[in-house]
Design a protein that fits this description.
By secondary structure, the protein is α+β, with helices and mostly antiparallel strands. Helix content is about 30%, strand content about 30%. A five-stranded antiparallel beta sheet has the order 1-2-3-4-5, with no helix packed on it. The longest helix has 13 residues, at about 50-65.
Length: about 90
C-alpha cells in the first residue's frame, strides 16, 4: 500500500485496485494505533476512527487536495501507482 502523504504523524495511503469492499473513492489513514477509511468525495468515515484532532487535520487535508486525491484514485483503481500529495503544513 503506497503512502501518498504523511504529516503530523498521520500516514495516508491508497491501495491499487481497492474497489471491492468500499466501492467509493477512499483513502486509508493511520495514526499510532488508530486506523480509518475516509471517502474522498465527502470526507465521510467509512470504517474505523481517529482522535478528534487528527480527524480534523485529515478532513482539512482532504478538502484541500480533493482533486488530486480523485486523480490518484483513478490511477489506483486502474492498477497504477498513485502520486505523492503534499502534506498539510
Amino acid at each position: 500500500m503506497p503512502t501518498i502523504s504523511m504529516f503530523y504523524g498521520i500516514l495516508v495511503s491508497m491501495y491499487a485496485l481497492d474497489i471491492d469492499k468500499h466501492h467509493l473513492p477512499h483513502i486509508h489513514v493511520r495514526y499510532n494505533e488508530f486506523k480509518t477509511v475516509i471517502a474522498i468525495p465527502d470526507g465521510e468515515v467509512l470504517e474505523g476512527r481517529l482522535p478528534i484532532r487528527q480527524s480534523k487535520l485529515i478532513q482539512a487535508w482532504v478538502e484541500l487536495h480533493r482533486d488530486e486525491l480523485m486523480a490518484d484514485w483513478f490511477l489506483a483503481a486502474s492498477g497504477q501507482t498513485p502520486f505523492k500529495i503534499d502534506p498539510l503544513r
